[in-house]
């Protein structure tokens, strides 16, 4: 062997050794919690806390960890860092006081596949594109604009009351029809008169898949462990689901947008929100795909959150007849039986408003907020939330804080009477900082109208068995209820 060959062999061996040592050091640090991070549960090499995060109901475990490690704690998944905010003070410090550095979204491979880059108002990165989408949303969902939609919400709420009266066993389907019809009417000028209306059937089919894709622990964390993106589709069912959801959404919303544009071309508009958005698309720098998903996001967010709130309210009221009676007495004394409640009545119904707050508190629609991302290091006490960290608000944990809400597992609207500080905390169910829900005013109107209607028109009771005994329902099950 020549000296040159020997020299090359030594060089290759040395280079391989350096690479091996570098990889070994890098792998040894993966999953390890850095010293500047808030504390958290012990980590496993490489995986971090991946195996400790429950697939279902992670907000419960996050609350337990919050009790053990503090109101702000950290989790590691590979090299990525998750920060969980378990108190209202932490949320105000990180997401409001430091909103300039905590208003981004983490990259989402699923969202990018399904909806493209930054077309989703809720999931878009903190960018000029997001600002354009947000500006459009503020225009069409302002308090003034939402008051113009009250007639739609009132009419749909009356139909819902009729459906609950005539077909109470199918209450879940009727509630979903209501919420979907309101937002479809507002955004696209298209009603959903029946639960079997084809566009609604298609919407719910793909909406359920989409919600499952976006749930924090329902699929592999491909954004935190990027190599998982390379797994072949036959071993990664999420890839197939993403394709199905994209195709389904494209079909639904292309058809709805085409209907709006054809009406506008005929001069036959009906005043729906997308008419304004289409007319001002150039002003707001919205291209064709942004237009498509602007409406899609409104429909998805507006349909699901309102229906879940009403379904939860029905469950809680049936097991708390004393709450029903007290709220009904208030409604009878203020409104009477000669007319149905209207939106302005809520100002004179403090106990009914407290029922709404308590329903939000005990069972928030989104137990974990849509995640934020830090764009710069954020100091929190003696710790640092690093740039790039994914930040979750544990809304469920905050609303079940024993120090703020005595007997936190009990449905007790009285806790909000004469207590504006507690009521203010409940507003965080709609998010906080610069990314607060754009549809908050429309959602509040639907929630308020239907809460008043339910209490005004119905006695909601538990189902009985064949012997006449009450069947106490599982509060996580929507089936065992009657009117």
UniProtKB/TrEMBL annotation:
Lipid bilayer topology: Single-pass membrane protein
Highest taxon, organism lineage: Eukaryota
Stretches assigned to coiled coil: none
Protein name: Cytochrome P450
Organism: Hebeloma cylindrosporum
Matches recorded under InterPro entries: Cyt_P450, Cyt_P450_CS, Cyt_P450_E_grp-I, Cyt_P450_sf, Cytochrome_P450_fung
Compartments (UniProt record): Membrane
Cofactor(s) essential for the protein: heme
């Amino acid at each position: 062997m020549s000296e040159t060959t020997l020299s090359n062999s030594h060089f290759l061996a040395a280079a391989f050794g350096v690479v091996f040592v570098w990889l070994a050091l890098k792998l040894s640090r993966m999953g390890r919690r850095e010293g500047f991070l808030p504390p958290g549960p012990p980590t496993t090499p490489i995986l971090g806390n991946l195996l400790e995060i429950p697939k279902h109901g992670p907000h419960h475990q996050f609350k337990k960890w919050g009790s053990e490690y503090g109101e702000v704690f950290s989790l590691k998944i590979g090299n990525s860092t998750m920060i969980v905010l378990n108190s209202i003070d932490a949320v105000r410090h990180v997401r409001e006081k430091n909103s300039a550095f905590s208003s981004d979204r983490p990259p989402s491979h699923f969202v990018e596949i399904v909806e493209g880059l930054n077309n989703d108002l809720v999931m878009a990165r903190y960018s000029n594109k997001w600002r354009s989408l947000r500006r459009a949303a503020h225009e069409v969902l302002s308090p003034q604009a939402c008051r113009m939609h009250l007639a739609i919400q009132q009419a749909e709420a009356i139909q819902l009351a009729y459906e609950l009266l005539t077909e109470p066993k199918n209450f879940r389907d009727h509630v979903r029809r209501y919420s979907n019809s309101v937002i479809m009417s507002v955004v696209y000028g298209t009603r959903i008169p029946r639960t079997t209306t084809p566009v609604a059937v298609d919407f719910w089919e793909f909406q359920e898949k989409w919600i499952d894709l976006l749930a924090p622990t329902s699929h592999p964390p491909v954004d935190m462990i990027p190599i998982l993106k390379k797994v072949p589709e036959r071993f990664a069912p999420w890839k197939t689901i993403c394709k199905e959801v994209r195709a389904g959404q494209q079909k639904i919303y292309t058809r709805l947008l085409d209907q709006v544009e054809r009406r506008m071309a005929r001069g036959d508009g009906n005043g729906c929100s997308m008419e304004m958005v289409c007319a001002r698309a150039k002003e707001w720098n919205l291209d064709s795909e942004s237009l498509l998903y602007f409406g899609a996001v409104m429909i998805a967010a507006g349909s699901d959150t309102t229906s879940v709130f009403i379904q939860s309210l029905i469950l809680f009221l049936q097991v708390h007849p004393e709450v029903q009676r007290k709220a009904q007495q208030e409604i009878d004394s203020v409104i009477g039986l000669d007319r149905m409640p209207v939106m302005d009545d809520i100002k004179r119904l403090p106990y009914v408003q407290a029922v709404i707050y308590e329903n939000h508190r005990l069972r928030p629609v989104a137990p974990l907020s849509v995640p934020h991302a830090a764009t710069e290091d954020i100091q929190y006490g003696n710790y640092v939330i690093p740039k790039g960290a994914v930040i979750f608000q544990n809304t469920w944990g905050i609303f079940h804080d024993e120090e703020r809400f005595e007997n936190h597992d009990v449905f007790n609207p009285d806790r909000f009477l004469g207590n504006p500080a507690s009521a203010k905390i409940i507003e965080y169910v709609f998010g906080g900082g610069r990314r607060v829900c754009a549809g908050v005013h429309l959602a509040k109107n639907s929630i308020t109208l239907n809460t008043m209607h339910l209490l005004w028109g119905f006695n909601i009771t538990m189902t009985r068995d064949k012997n006449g005994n009450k069947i106490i329902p599982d509060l996580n099950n929507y089936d065992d209820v009657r009117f």
